[in-house]
Amino acid sequence: MTPVALRAEVDLGAIRHNVRTLGVTGAMAVVKADAYGHGAVPVARALVGEGVEWLAVATVPEAERLRQAGIRERILVLAAPLPEFLPAYERLGLDAVVSSPEVAEAVMARAAPVPVHVKVDTGMHRMGLAPETAAATVRRLQAGGVEVVALWTHFSMADAPDPTFTFLQVRQFDGVVRQLGSDAPPLVHLANGPAHVRLPPVATRPALHRLGGVLYGLRTGVLPEVDATDLRPAMRLVARVVHLHTVPAGASVSYGQTWTAERPTRVATLGVGYADGLPRALSNRGHVGLGGGLAPIVGRICMDMTMVDVDGLDVAVGDEAVVFGLGGPTAEAAAEAAGTIVYELTAGLTARVPRAYPADAAAGA
Length: 365
Ligand SMILES: *Cc1c(COP(=O)(O)O)cnc(C)c1O
Known about the structure:
It is a single chain. This protein has about 375 residues and is of the alpha/beta class. Helices cover about 30% and strands about 20% of the residues. The chain contains 14 helices and 18 strands. The strands form 4 sheets. The chain has an 8-stranded parallel β-sheet with strand order 4-3-2-9-8-7-6-5. Strands 1, 10, 13, 16, 17 and 18 form a 6-stranded mixed β-sheet that branches. A two-stranded antiparallel ribbon has the order 11-12. Helix 1 (about 10-20) packs across helix 3 (about 40-50) and helix 7 (about 130-145) packs parallel to helix 8. The longest helix has 17 residues, at about 165-180. It binds pyridoxal-5'-phosphate. Pyridoxal-5'-phosphate (PLP) binds near residues 78, 192 and 194. Pyridoxal-5'-phosphate (PLP) binds near residues 30, 32, 193, 210 and 214.
């Protein structure tokens, strides 16, 4: 294997455990953004092995990678398609979102239209048909010979402790279902992971649930119901010590001299930087697990390197520091220190970070 000073270890056993805990029946596994950074192909294979029948991605190239890896399950592309993308949907056998009357017309204009999931905008205001026009669009598609697989919507406040707005969205959605009566598509999907875990009236209705972060054991930090569920974090980011030195009192570390040693200080340099996806906002704020303790990040995080204060810790060149995950701060704690959410942290890891799937983890729980 090519030598590297950094890897993201992904425990597929934890992902298997999480999908079992959440329930496979009715799960549409969201593996967009390279499965939130965990590696879309290995993750999708693990999930399919557990019986997951629906996958969702954000873009056509993401779906294409799964097809090229031999994954044959149904795949929904969540983003609104541009009309010129539709031939690729047909070639790859993908389900498309109908997000506007224009997209509906573009789908109907194709000789062999793909199956569609009609999106109702119940309050997110990102894309989708207004509740007043959605039923007419469904009927127009059906009359045009298009298979309308599902009616769906997306919650904007599922992470908020107060469910009032989410229930308002459900009511808007149910209004469209009622208007359609016996023309309603066979499937509906509303909930994302947090809504599935914490909103029983949403979670228990017969529907697909688009589960993302919860599959990877990512916590919201604000919802006790989600955070109390037995979910296992699947990722550890491990960086090796590539240099170790003692800086004298009064010396500053890294660009801009934002940290100055008050006394002679042992400083370790790690092979991870913001070009790997480590948020630069963790400069002088974050910690890593190293030498049996937590070592504070000192000075600015560079593109390819990060310095930590290891004074009093037992550290040697070549040692492994846990940037987040088991043996270090949780991903949630690191994200919070960076002023962001945990999804951005794992999904933000760049292509330079090799993903490793330890065999013992893959055999997993
Ligand atoms: C990303 C996404 C999801 C998954 O959300 P989580 O909060 O990760 O469970 C569900 N639905 C849509 C439309 C999405 O874009």
